[in-house]
Design goal:
Blueprint (H helix, E strand, L loop, with lengths): L10 E12 L2 E9 L8 E2 L2 E3 L6 H13 L2 E16 L5 E16 L8 E8 L14 H16 L1
Parallel strand pairs: 1-6
Antiparallel strand pairs: 1-2, 1-4, 2-3, 2-7, 5-6
Length: about 150
């Protein structure tokens, strides 16, 4: 089968969810995308998993590239399916994103690479700040918060 006739396949990506407690609130790092797809939208730092790299390694690498923050990947938290469809409903692009819970080590978020902005956002305020959020950001943040608290005991 030639490359031209090969079926399109989903792309494996990863996102890093870093939690910390500061100022009396649990926070996560969110980035505002600076490039397409999803320019202007807020979500977790992340990107493609490279050949020979685990999704855990990729999450830490992408976090550092996009924000300058160092973190240690702790575990896989969940997966997120992202499917972009055209007006007729045909899938145009598909990603399977592994969500990796990470332990904050050092650094303050500074946008770099393909991020426009990078900030610590209180989890309780994610959906009330008026940010243009990618799908499932609030749900994933709360899931990470619960797991992070359980691991911190």
């Amino acid at each position: 089968m030639s490359a031209a006739s090969s079926p399109a396949r989903p792309v494996l990506g990863t996102i890093a969810v870093v939690c910390r407690h500061s100022g009396g609130q649990d926070q996560v790092i969110l980035v505002q995308r600076g490039k397409e797809p999803n320019a202007g939208w807020w979500g977790f730092p992340g990107g493609h998993v490279e050949m020979g790299e685990t999704a855990l390694q990729a999450a830490a690498r992408e976090l550092m590239e996009e924000t300058g923050v160092a973190a240690r990947p702790l575990e896989y938290l969940t997966n997120v399916d992202v499917i972009s469809r055209d007006a007729s409903g045909m899938a145009q692009r598909q990603y399977l994103l592994t969500v990796v819970l990470c332990e904050y080590l050092s650094g303050e978020p500074v946008p770099d690479d393909d991020a426009e902005k990078a900030e610590w956002i209180p989890i309780a305020e994610i959906e009330s700040r008026g940010l243009q959020l990618l799908d499932q950001v609030g749900d994933v943040a709360r899931l990470a918060q619960a797991r992070w608290r359980a691991l911190s005991r």
